[in-house]
Design brief:
single chain, 266 residues, alpha/beta, Rossmann fold, globular, binds adenosine-5'-diphosphate
């Protein structure tokens, strides 16, 4: 298709983007998009210029998490070439597969369609200068992962997992994939999400609902950095649903994601 041609003829793509970071998980529902959105906002809060591509075709949740559901990016035509203007919210430039499909519709994306959408997000969107472009990948291993590494120089991948055995088993596969020769993306580290729960009335207690320190063990096993743990917090879930990332409010969640952003920026 013409997209493929554009991508091949214009290499290298995104020369004005300093770091392209893939956010990946083995399993769905472990909080990958939640971490991607909070991390993006936390990085922007440090003064960095940040973009976020939602490439999770199985459930594009970034539009909801940023309260821009149903918005349609503007397209401008310059010298015969169409350029998509990303939607900007909370200091982050956004592009999502969700902007291309009507809300509540069950669009079935074939692998090649999703791959060409991702290519378009990379080659036809006016990202401008960015310090970080985060790519929220679908869970598991897919065509999209391959498309991504074939299209842009990915700086590294962050693996999100819960400490639960089934999540870790899938995260192990995801992590190994980045190390395979045809992908070959450095793993920047593992984030353990939903690490524990602390009730308000028992602030000194930690309950390890999904098991303890599984993310840390995974990081150790693959000899990659452990980037930190994010507890289960009701306001993180609520913030996701209302489209106002938890990191924007004062509190321990803000600290946790800000710390994560600082660790990554190093
Ligand atoms: P994924 O992208 O891995 O499929 P999501 O980011 O959509 O996962 O998260 C799945 C659900 O869990 C969402 O409802 C989200 O609000 C919630 N969630 C994620 N992380 C946390 C957390 N640390 N504390 C509380 N709820 C969370």
């Amino acid at each position: 298709t013409s997209n493929v041609t554009t991508v091949r003829n214009n290499a290298p793509l995104l020369p004005q983007v300093k770091n392209i970071i893939a956010i990946a998980s083995g399993k769905g529902g472990v909080g990958k998009s939640t971490c991607a959105s909070n991390l993006a906002v936390a990085l922007a809060a440090t003064g960095a210029k940040v973009g976020l591509i939602d490439a999770d075709i199985s459930g594009p949740s970034i539009p909801v998490m940023f309260n821009v559901e149903g918005e349609q990016p503007a397209v401008k035509n310059e010298n015969g070439k169409n350029t998509i203007i990303p939607i900007e919210q909370y200091g982050v430039k956004l592009m999502s597969i969700g902007f291309l499909t009507p809300a509540d519709s069950a669009v079935v994306w074939r692998g090649p369609m999703a791959s060409s959408a991702l290519k378009q997000f990379i080659s036809d969107v006016e990202w401008g200068e960015l310090d970080y472009l985060l790519i929220d990948l679908p869970p598991g291993t897919s065509d999209i992962h391959l498309t991504m590494v074939q299209t842009v120089p990915v700086t590294g991948a962050v693996i999100i997992t819960t400490p639960q055995k089934v999540a870790l088993a899938d995260a192990t596969k995801g992590l190994s994939m980045f190390k395979q020769p045809q992908i070959n993306v450095p793993v920047l580290g593992v984030v353990e999400n939903m690490a524990y729960f602390t009730p308000d009335e028992l602030p000194d207690n930690k309950y390890y609902l999904f098991g303890k320190e599984g993310g840390q063990r995974l990081a150790k096993k693959f000899d990659v950095p452990f980037l930190g743990e994010i507890p289960i917090v009701q306001s993180i879930r609520e913030s996701g649903d209302t489209g106002y990332p938890a990191v924007l409010k004062e509190g321990t969640t803000k600290q946790a994601f800000s710390q994560l952003a600082e660790t990554l920026a190093r």
